[in-house]
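chain below, 227 aa
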Amino acid sequence: MHHHLEENLNSIEQTINILNNAQIKKSFVIYCPQIVAHGRFGSLLSSLLADENYDIEHNDVLLSPESAEDLLAYRKADLVFSFAPVNSRSIVCTRFMKLAMLLACSKDHPRLGDSATIEELSQEKFTLMRSQENGIKEFQLQSNILLPERNVCFRSDSLLSIMNIIGVSDLIGFVPTILFERYKDHLNLKSISLPFAIPQVDVYMLYNRSALNSSVFTQFIEKIEVE
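prediction:
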């Protein structure tokens, strides 16, 4: 039933786009993690809004109870940025960027300097990003392999809350480099050099294939890809 409904919606949308091109909307609903909005995506939106007459509504995909696939299938989003790819004939899915991660602690941490060994880290208490996103779960799985002795004592679905608590306590945790560079001075943070490479997090861009029937949407996507 879900598949047939999606096909019907695609057919209706395609017909409207072809027969009524003059009324194609220039507003876009985008679901994107706040992490990504601080980096390449934020710069991209600034450029698009300056050059074109776009009306953009942004929602945090991490706070949505619906999956990226459902957001697109039920036309609640025109464009979704997700930490996990979607394999569907009706959805275009491409890698948008890679998020670099680092381990952060307070500049005033009583035990840790600019670098730390695995043994030293095993004595510390960690923060953890709470999320149902498969990409975040995969990062946590990989970091658990690298640091199997982690003692997690603070969990949150807000990265800014995690960074705040790290800056005012002895806790340490993995945070996106983009956010660290922006807030490190305000939140009293420093990075810790590790004896291993920290996994990166993939960010994927997804949209309905049928949306390419809209010349306005196609131009919007082309601008994103150029940026």
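Residues 2-19 form the longest helix (18 residues). The CA atoms of residues 44 and 50 lie 10 Å apart.
thats it, cya
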